[in-house]
Amino acid sequence: MTGLLSLILNANNLFDYGVCAFSRISDKLIDCPERDRIPAGAESVICIVFPTNATMVADDPDAVFRLRRVASQMLELTCTALRKAFSEYQFEWFLDDSPIPDVTAASFCGLGAIGDSGLLLTPHYGSFCFTGNIVTDLLLPETGDEATYCVHCRRCIESCPAGALSEQGGFDKEKCVRYAASAAPDTTAFLLRQGAAVKGCNTCREVCPCNSAIGSADQHPFIKAATHPDSIFTSDGGYKPMGGLGQNKFRKLPGDS
Ligand code: SF4
Ligand code: SF4
Fold first, then answer.
1. Residue 4 CB–ligand 2 contact under 6 Å
2. 160 lines ligand 1 (CB under 6 A)
3. Which of 26, 39, 57, 130 sits CB 3.0–4.6 Å from 90 for a disulfide?
4. Number of neighbours of residue 221 by Cβ within 10 angstroms
5. What is the number of the ligand closest to the CA of 207?
6. Distance 151 CA to ligand 2 centre (A)
7. Any idea which ligand is nearest the CA of 171?
8. Mean pLDDT for the chain?
9. Is the pLDDT of residue 177 over 70?
């Protein structure tokens, strides 16, 4: 990774990241409206890990929604800086409603293993994290090699109340979302319909052995920025609409008539 690129990412509190060639995932793109934003001639995918194993999430599980807004704002600011620094190239970020198979891409970047839970299993934060991506037509050196996989212990598969998981990464998002919506309080279900991130029941995280000895992210720059009382990211309550999020769209859930 180029020095200037790292400097810009670090300046925006992004420290856990890697790069893979766009060609690694170009045949696995997810069909969604945001796919049109992928730069023509895309060469590289920068994957960023955002940890969530923090006290603020333990105290309030819905804080994950706020963290995703904070991450979105960080990605927006980072792309603005990258476009200025590398003016001949395009940079587009993706988080929610993303066409990028983020877990697979992150594993190609060397950031963790692909779990049968459909989650990325990182060395430091297990699956208590989410990822964002920046796609660019700037050719960057890769930081990983081949994708890696979990130990297939089946605990998540056998514990999933929605029957949404199967071996070799078989994750049925619709079953998971339907279960989350049916089990959620009205307020959370409302947020889901506004295009907010989907927060599942978390059973697949709780039973995973990869999460048995993970570290707290309380001191991670991302969490500190999100919880700092003067942070520009939290002053609006964490729900400032940002371009590319699809937040203003009414999104039907599976099973809605
Ligand atoms: S969040 Fe719950 S319903 Fe969704 S895959 Fe995990 S265990 Fe299954
Ligand atoms: S619980 Fe077992 S099978 Fe599921 S992701 Fe974790 S290691 Fe893989």
1. no
2. yes
3. 39
4. 15
5. 2
6. 6
7. 1
8. 82
9. yes
Give the 3-state DSSP-derived string for the chain, with helices as H, strands as E and coil as C. CCHHHHHHHHHCCCCCEEEEEHHHCCCCCCCCHHHHHCCCCCCEEEEEEEECCCHHHHHCCCHHHHHHHHHHHHHHHHHHHHHHHCCCCCEEEEECECCCCHHHHHHHCCCCEECCCCCEEECCCECCEEEEEEEECCCCCCCCCCCEECCCCCHHHHHCCCCCEECCCEECHHHHHHHHHHHCCHHHHHHHHCCCCCCCCCHHHHCCHHHCCCCCCCCCHHHHHHHCCCCCCCCCCCCCCCCCCCCCCCCCCCCCC
Q: What's the CA gap between 148 and 108, in Å, rounded?
A: 8
Shortest CA distance to 47 belongs to which of 96, 113, 116, 93? 93
CA separation for the pair 160, 183 (Å, rounded): 13
Q: Is 179 in the pocket of ligand 1 (CB under 6 A)?
A: yes
What is the CA(202)–ligand 1 centre distance, in A? 6
Give the ligand at the shortest distance from the Cα of 209. 2
Least confident of 47-51, 113-117, 126-130, 235-239: 235-239
How many Å lie between the centroid of ligand 1 and the Cα of residue 255?
A: 17
Give me 171's structure tokens: 């994750």
> Tens digit of pLDDT for each residue in 10-43?
888 888 999 999 999 999 999 988 999 999 999 9
Task: Please give the pLDDT value at position 255.
Answer: 44
Tell me the range of 6-15, 78-87, 194-203 where mean pLDDT is highest.
78-87
